[in-house]
Design brief:
The protein is α+β, with helices and mostly antiparallel strands and about 240 residues long. Helices cover about 30% and strands about 30% of the residues. It has an 8-stranded mixed beta sheet, with helices on both faces. Residues about 215-235 have low confidence and may be disordered.
Length: about 240
Protein backbone atom coordinates (compact mmCIF):
# COMPACT_ATOMS: atom_id res chain seq x y z
CA UNK A 1 0.00 0.00 0.00
CA UNK A 2 1.18 3.52 -0.84
CA UNK A 3 -0.03 6.58 1.06
CA UNK A 4 0.12 10.31 0.53
CA UNK A 5 -0.59 13.40 2.64
CA UNK A 6 -2.63 16.09 0.90
CA UNK A 7 -4.18 19.38 2.02
CA UNK A 8 -7.97 19.58 2.12
CA UNK A 9 -10.01 22.59 0.91
CA UNK A 10 -11.00 23.30 4.53
CA UNK A 11 -7.39 23.77 5.63
CA UNK A 12 -7.01 20.33 7.23
CA UNK A 13 -4.88 17.46 5.93
CA UNK A 14 -5.94 14.14 4.42
CA UNK A 15 -4.13 10.83 4.36
CA UNK A 16 -5.00 9.06 1.11
CA UNK A 17 -4.42 5.55 -0.16
CA UNK A 18 -3.02 5.34 -3.68
CA UNK A 19 -5.72 4.56 -6.21
CA UNK A 20 -8.60 5.66 -3.98
CA UNK A 21 -10.32 9.02 -4.18
CA UNK A 22 -11.86 8.93 -0.71
CA UNK A 23 -9.44 9.86 2.11
CA UNK A 24 -8.47 7.39 4.81
CA UNK A 25 -8.46 10.00 7.59
CA UNK A 26 -8.53 13.74 8.24
CA UNK A 27 -6.11 15.63 10.51
CA UNK A 28 -5.74 19.18 11.78
CA UNK A 29 -2.02 19.49 11.01
CA UNK A 30 0.37 18.14 8.42
CA UNK A 31 2.52 16.67 11.18
CA UNK A 32 -0.41 14.62 12.52
CA UNK A 33 -1.22 13.41 9.01
CA UNK A 34 2.40 12.32 8.39
CA UNK A 35 2.46 10.45 11.70
CA UNK A 36 -0.76 8.65 10.82
CA UNK A 37 0.44 7.90 7.28
CA UNK A 38 3.49 6.15 8.75
CA UNK A 39 1.28 4.22 11.20
CA UNK A 40 -0.90 3.02 8.33
CA UNK A 41 2.18 1.82 6.46
CA UNK A 42 3.31 -0.15 9.52
CA UNK A 43 -0.18 -1.61 9.92
CA UNK A 44 -0.25 -2.72 6.29
CA UNK A 45 2.85 -4.83 6.94
CA UNK A 46 1.39 -6.72 9.91
CA UNK A 47 1.43 -10.51 9.65
CA UNK A 48 -0.32 -11.49 12.89
CA UNK A 49 -3.60 -13.33 13.33
CA UNK A 50 -4.80 -16.92 13.30
CA UNK A 51 -4.15 -18.66 9.98
CA UNK A 52 -7.33 -20.39 8.75
CA UNK A 53 -7.23 -22.76 5.78
CA UNK A 54 -10.18 -22.80 3.39
CA UNK A 55 -11.58 -25.65 1.32
CA UNK A 56 -9.77 -24.65 -1.88
CA UNK A 57 -6.37 -24.68 -0.19
CA UNK A 58 -6.18 -20.91 0.26
CA UNK A 59 -5.74 -19.37 3.69
CA UNK A 60 -6.66 -16.15 5.48
CA UNK A 61 -5.42 -14.57 8.68
CA UNK A 62 -8.18 -13.53 11.08
CA UNK A 63 -7.46 -10.90 13.71
CA UNK A 64 -9.18 -8.05 15.57
CA UNK A 65 -9.49 -4.80 13.66
CA UNK A 66 -7.43 -1.87 14.92
CA UNK A 67 -7.62 1.87 14.07
CA UNK A 68 -4.66 1.55 11.68
CA UNK A 69 -6.70 -0.91 9.59
CA UNK A 70 -8.65 1.90 7.94
CA UNK A 71 -6.79 1.35 4.63
CA UNK A 72 -7.70 -2.36 4.70
CA UNK A 73 -11.37 -1.48 5.18
CA UNK A 74 -11.30 1.15 2.43
CA UNK A 75 -9.57 -1.30 0.09
CA UNK A 76 -12.03 -4.10 0.84
CA UNK A 77 -15.02 -1.78 0.35
CA UNK A 78 -13.70 -0.81 -3.09
CA UNK A 79 -13.67 -4.51 -4.06
CA UNK A 80 -17.35 -4.99 -3.22
CA UNK A 81 -19.78 -4.99 -6.12
CA UNK A 82 -22.82 -2.70 -6.00
CA UNK A 83 -24.95 -5.73 -5.09
CA UNK A 84 -22.69 -6.75 -2.22
CA UNK A 85 -22.68 -3.20 -0.88
CA UNK A 86 -26.45 -3.08 -1.02
CA UNK A 87 -26.78 -6.43 0.79
CA UNK A 88 -24.46 -5.20 3.53
CA UNK A 89 -25.71 -1.63 4.03
CA UNK A 90 -29.27 -2.03 2.68
CA UNK A 91 -28.72 1.08 0.58
CA UNK A 92 -26.61 2.07 -2.42
CA UNK A 93 -23.31 3.42 -1.13
CA UNK A 94 -20.53 4.68 -3.39
CA UNK A 95 -17.83 5.29 -0.78
CA UNK A 96 -17.08 5.36 2.92
CA UNK A 97 -16.60 8.70 4.63
CA UNK A 98 -13.79 9.48 7.06
CA UNK A 99 -16.32 9.33 9.90
CA UNK A 100 -17.63 5.94 8.79
CA UNK A 101 -14.12 4.52 8.50
CA UNK A 102 -13.41 5.69 12.04
CA UNK A 103 -16.57 4.09 13.43
CA UNK A 104 -15.78 0.81 11.64
CA UNK A 105 -12.22 0.53 12.95
CA UNK A 106 -12.09 2.33 16.31
CA UNK A 107 -13.84 -0.32 18.41
CA UNK A 108 -13.55 -1.27 22.07
CA UNK A 109 -13.39 -5.07 21.44
CA UNK A 110 -15.99 -5.59 24.15
CA UNK A 111 -19.32 -3.99 23.27
CA UNK A 112 -18.21 -3.54 19.67
CA UNK A 113 -16.00 -6.22 18.19
CA UNK A 114 -14.73 -6.38 14.62
CA UNK A 115 -12.58 -9.07 13.03
CA UNK A 116 -10.75 -8.83 9.72
CA UNK A 117 -9.80 -11.60 7.32
CA UNK A 118 -6.52 -10.77 5.56
CA UNK A 119 -5.06 -12.43 2.49
CA UNK A 120 -1.57 -13.44 3.74
CA UNK A 121 -0.15 -13.36 0.20
CA UNK A 122 -1.15 -9.79 -0.64
CA UNK A 123 -1.88 -8.23 2.77
CA UNK A 124 -5.29 -7.11 1.49
CA UNK A 125 -8.47 -7.30 3.54
CA UNK A 126 -10.98 -9.79 2.14
CA UNK A 127 -13.70 -9.88 4.81
CA UNK A 128 -14.98 -8.35 8.02
CA UNK A 129 -17.30 -9.60 10.75
CA UNK A 130 -18.56 -7.44 13.58
CA UNK A 131 -21.05 -7.32 16.40
CA UNK A 132 -22.41 -4.33 18.30
CA UNK A 133 -23.97 -5.02 21.69
CA UNK A 134 -27.55 -3.85 22.26
CA UNK A 135 -27.36 -1.32 25.15
CA UNK A 136 -30.94 -2.15 26.15
CA UNK A 137 -30.29 -5.92 26.05
CA UNK A 138 -26.64 -6.52 26.92
CA UNK A 139 -26.87 -10.27 26.22
CA UNK A 140 -27.76 -9.53 22.56
CA UNK A 141 -25.72 -7.98 19.76
CA UNK A 142 -26.33 -7.11 16.13
CA UNK A 143 -23.97 -9.08 13.89
CA UNK A 144 -22.90 -8.65 10.27
CA UNK A 145 -20.43 -10.32 7.93
CA UNK A 146 -19.07 -8.98 4.64
CA UNK A 147 -16.74 -10.74 2.19
CA UNK A 148 -15.33 -9.21 -0.99
CA UNK A 149 -16.84 -10.67 -4.14
CA UNK A 150 -13.86 -12.64 -5.42
CA UNK A 151 -13.57 -14.46 -2.07
CA UNK A 152 -17.25 -15.26 -1.63
CA UNK A 153 -18.32 -18.90 -1.59
CA UNK A 154 -14.97 -20.09 -0.23
CA UNK A 155 -15.83 -20.25 3.49
CA UNK A 156 -14.40 -16.90 4.61
CA UNK A 157 -17.76 -15.78 6.02
CA UNK A 158 -18.15 -19.01 7.97
CA UNK A 159 -14.65 -18.74 9.45
CA UNK A 160 -15.21 -15.10 10.44
CA UNK A 161 -18.60 -15.81 12.01
CA UNK A 162 -17.19 -18.73 14.00
CA UNK A 163 -14.50 -16.50 15.50
CA UNK A 164 -16.99 -13.68 16.08
CA UNK A 165 -19.39 -16.00 17.93
CA UNK A 166 -16.53 -17.20 20.15
CA UNK A 167 -15.64 -13.61 21.02
CA UNK A 168 -19.27 -12.73 21.68
CA UNK A 169 -19.72 -15.57 24.14
CA UNK A 170 -16.51 -14.57 25.92
CA UNK A 171 -18.12 -11.16 26.47
CA UNK A 172 -21.40 -12.58 27.79
CA UNK A 173 -23.41 -12.25 24.59
CA UNK A 174 -25.93 -15.05 24.09
CA UNK A 175 -27.89 -13.89 21.07
CA UNK A 176 -27.10 -12.42 17.66
CA UNK A 177 -29.58 -10.28 15.77
CA UNK A 178 -29.31 -9.36 12.10
CA UNK A 179 -31.14 -7.49 9.37
CA UNK A 180 -30.93 -9.22 6.00
CA UNK A 181 -32.42 -8.98 2.57
CA UNK A 182 -34.66 -12.03 2.10
CA UNK A 183 -32.73 -12.78 -1.13
CA UNK A 184 -29.47 -13.06 0.81
CA UNK A 185 -29.75 -16.81 1.21
CA UNK A 186 -26.07 -17.41 1.93
CA UNK A 187 -26.12 -15.25 5.05
CA UNK A 188 -29.50 -16.59 6.13
CA UNK A 189 -28.11 -20.14 5.89
CA UNK A 190 -25.04 -19.17 7.86
CA UNK A 191 -27.06 -17.62 10.67
CA UNK A 192 -29.53 -20.51 10.56
CA UNK A 193 -26.70 -22.90 11.46
CA UNK A 194 -25.61 -20.81 14.45
CA UNK A 195 -28.39 -22.01 16.72
CA UNK A 196 -32.10 -21.48 17.19
CA UNK A 197 -33.14 -18.90 14.59
CA UNK A 198 -36.32 -16.87 14.86
CA UNK A 199 -37.68 -14.51 12.21
CA UNK A 200 -38.77 -11.36 14.04
CA UNK A 201 -39.97 -9.57 10.93
CA UNK A 202 -40.46 -11.03 7.46
CA UNK A 203 -40.75 -9.44 4.04
CA UNK A 204 -38.10 -8.23 1.57
CA UNK A 205 -35.97 -7.16 4.55
CA UNK A 206 -35.94 -9.68 7.37
CA UNK A 207 -35.04 -9.19 10.99
CA UNK A 208 -33.81 -12.34 12.70
CA UNK A 209 -32.34 -13.37 16.00
CA UNK A 210 -30.27 -16.42 16.79
CA UNK A 211 -29.74 -17.93 20.23
CA UNK A 212 -26.06 -18.90 20.49
CA UNK A 213 -25.44 -22.34 22.03
CA UNK A 214 -23.40 -22.27 25.24
CA UNK A 215 -21.42 -24.85 27.19
CA UNK A 216 -19.86 -28.13 26.18
CA UNK A 217 -21.17 -29.94 23.15
CA UNK A 218 -21.85 -26.81 21.11
CA UNK A 219 -22.58 -27.74 17.52
CA UNK A 220 -22.05 -24.21 16.26
CA UNK A 221 -18.26 -24.09 16.07
CA UNK A 222 -17.96 -27.40 14.26
CA UNK A 223 -20.78 -26.51 11.86
CA UNK A 224 -19.18 -23.20 10.97
CA UNK A 225 -15.74 -24.68 10.61
CA UNK A 226 -17.26 -27.37 8.41
CA UNK A 227 -18.64 -24.58 6.26
CA UNK A 228 -15.18 -23.08 6.00
CA UNK A 229 -13.83 -26.46 4.90
CA UNK A 230 -16.62 -26.76 2.32
CA UNK A 231 -18.59 -29.55 3.97
CA UNK A 232 -21.60 -27.23 3.99
CA UNK A 233 -22.44 -24.19 1.88
CA UNK A 234 -21.76 -20.74 3.35
CA UNK A 235 -20.71 -17.26 2.30
Amino acid sequence: MRFSVEPSPSGAWFVKLSGHGAPVSRHDTEEEAIERRDAYARGAAREDGALVHLRDGAAVRIRPIEPDDKPHVLQAFARLSAGSRYRRFLTYKKELTVTELASLTEVDHRDHEALAAIDPDTGEGVGIARYVRDPDRPVAAEAAVTVVDDWQGRGVGAALLAELADRAREEGIREFTATLLSENRAMRTLFDRLGVLRVVRGGPVQEIDVALPVGDGDCMDETLRAAARGDVTAA
